[in-house]
C-alpha cells in the first residue's frame, strides 16, 4: 500500500530543483535529532540506543538499516530491511546502496534550524564515497508547505491575534486616561488570558516592552525585568500563537507598536514610516515578479534572500543601517519559527524559493539605546497569490491591517 509520507518525500524530489540526487538519508541516535523524529513520525519515547538509517530514494522502495537488537525501530515505515551488529556491517550495507551517489541529508552551512544530522555521520558518509547535499529545499517542501486546511487555521489564529492587540491597546488607553500604573507583566498577563479564552496556544509568552526595553528585540518580562510605563514611552507588542483545538494548526505572528501618549515624537514617527515602507515592499516585490504559478523552477528567483535585501536596502538608504539587528523574517508552519524559507540574506542566508503554500513573517525592526520599533505581518502564498492571514480584520476606528500608523493613547 502506498505510504503518504514516502509519497510526499518522493514528490518533493520531483518538485525541487535538486539535480543528480539519488534520495534522502535520515539517521538518528537516542532521539538527538528532533527534526528527523518529527519528519518520520517517530515516537520520542521509543527505544533508540543504536543508530538506524532510513534511505528514501527518489523512486522505489526505501531502505532501512537497523541494529539487530532494535529491529522494530522503524516498524511504522515501509522499506526493505537490512540488519547489522557491527560498524563494519553497517558501512557495508550503506555502501552497497549509496556508494558513489549523492544524497540529501539534514545539513546546511547557512541554515542551522535544519542542520540537525550529527557530524560523525557526515564524516562516515564522506569516508565511504557517499556525497551529500543540503536537504533544506526538501524540508521546506515536505514540512513547511501548508494545506488549505492549515491556511484556514492560520487565518483564524491571525484574526484572534489582531483582535487581542486591539483589546490590549484599549486596556493601555484606560490606564493612561485614568492615570493608573501600568507594568509590562500586567499587559503580558492580559494577552495570555485572552489567548486561553480563545483557544490559542503559544511556545513562549508574548513580548511586551516599554521605553528603552523596546530596543531589545528579544526582551523578556521577568520578576526583575518588569518596567512601569511612563508617558511618552514606546510600547512594543509582539504576539504569536495557533489554534489549540485544530490538528496541525499553523501559527500566526504579529507585532504592533504605539506610544504611551497622545502625541508621537518626530524621530519615532519618521522611523516607523521607514519601517512600514520596508515591510510593504515584500508583497509588492512578489507581485511585480509573479508568474503563472509559484511552483519552483530554475527561472523563478524570488528567494528569502532576495526579499530580505529589498527590505534592507530601504532601511539602509534612509540612514538606519546601524539600527538593524536581525533578519526580515522567518518561516512559519506548525512551529512559529518553522523550517521553510526565511527572509534572510545576512544572518542565515536563505536562497530557497518562495513557493505555493509557504508562509513567513515580515518583521523589519530598528533598535536604538532609548527605543526600538518593529512592525510585523505574516505573508502566505495560496492559489498563486500573496496574502496576509487575518488581514480583513479592522480596529474599531477603521485602521486596516497591516498597521499603517502608530497607536496612541
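-> sequence recovered:
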Amino acid at each position: 500500500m502506498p505510504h503518504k509520507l514516502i509519497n510526499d518525500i518522493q514528490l518533493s524530489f520531483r518538485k525541487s530543483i535538486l539535480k543528480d540526487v539519488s534520495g534522502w538519508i535520515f539517521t538518528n541516535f537516542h532521539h538527538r535529532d528532533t527534526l528527523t523524529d518529527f519528519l518520520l513520525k517517530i515516537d520520542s519515547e521509543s527505544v533508540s540506543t543504536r543508530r538506524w538509517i532510513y534511505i528514501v530514494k527518489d523512486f522505489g522502495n526505501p531502505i532501512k538499516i537497523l541494529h539487530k537488537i532494535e529491529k522494530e525501530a522503524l516498524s511504522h515505515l515501509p522499506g526493505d530491511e537490512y540488519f547489522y551488529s557491527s560498524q563494519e556491517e553497517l558501512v557495508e550495507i550503506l555502501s552497497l546502496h549509496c556508494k558513489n551517489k549523492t544524497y540529501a541529508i539534514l545539513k546546511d552551512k547557512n541554515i542551522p534550524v535544519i542542520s540537525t544530522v550529527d557530524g560523525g555521520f557526515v564524516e562516515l558518509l564522506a569516508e565511504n564515497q557517499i556525497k551529500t547535499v543540503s536537504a533544506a529545499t526538501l524540508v521546506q517542501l515536505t514540512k513547511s508547505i501548508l494545506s488549505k486546511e492549515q491556511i484556514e487555521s492560520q487565518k483564524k489564529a491571525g484574526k484572534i491575534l489582531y483582535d487581542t492587540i486591539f483589546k490590549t491597546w484599549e486596556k493601555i488607553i484606560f490606564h493612561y486616561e485614568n492615570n493608573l500604573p501600568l507594568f509590562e507583566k500586567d499587559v503580558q498577563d492580559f494577552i495570555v488570558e485572552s489567548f486561553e479564552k480563545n483557544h490559542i496556544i503559544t511556545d513562549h509568552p508574548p513580548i511586551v516592552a516599554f521605553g528603552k526595553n523596546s530596543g531589545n528585540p528579544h526582551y523578556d518580562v521577568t520578576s526583575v525585568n518588569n518596567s512601569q510605563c511612563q508617558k511618552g514611552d514606546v510600547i512594543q507588542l509582539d504576539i504569536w500563537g495557533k489554534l489549540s483545538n485544530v490538528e496541525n494548526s499553523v501559527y500566526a505572528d504579529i507585532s504592533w507598536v504605539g506610544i504611551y501618549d497622545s502625541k508621537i515624537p518626530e524621530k519615532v514617527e519618521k522611523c516607523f514610516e521607514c519601517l512600514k515602507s520596508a515591510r510593504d515592499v515584500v508583497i509588492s516585490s512578489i507581485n511585480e515578479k509573479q508568474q503563472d504559478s509559484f511552483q519552483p523552477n530554475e527561472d523563478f528567483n524570488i528567494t528569502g534572500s532576495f526579499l530580505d535585501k529589498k527590505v534592507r536596502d530601504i532601511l539602509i538608504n534612509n540612514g538606519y543601517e546601524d539600527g538593524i539587528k536581525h533578519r526580515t523574517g522567518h518561516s512559519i508552519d506548525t512551529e512559529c519559527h518553522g523550517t521553510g524559507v526565511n527572509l534572510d540574506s545576512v544572518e542565515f542566508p536563505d536562497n530557497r524559493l518562495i513557493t505555493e503554500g509557504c508562509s513567513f513573517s515580515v518583521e523589519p525592526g530598528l533598535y536604538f539605546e532609548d527605543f526600538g520599533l518593529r512592525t510585523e505581518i505574516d505573508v502566505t502564498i495560496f492559489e498563486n497569490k500573496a496574502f496576509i492571514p487575518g488581514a480583513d480584520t479592522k480596529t474599531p476606528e477603521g485602521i486596516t491591517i497591516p498597521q499603517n500608523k502608530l497607536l496612541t493613547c
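The chain is about 30% helix and 20% strand.
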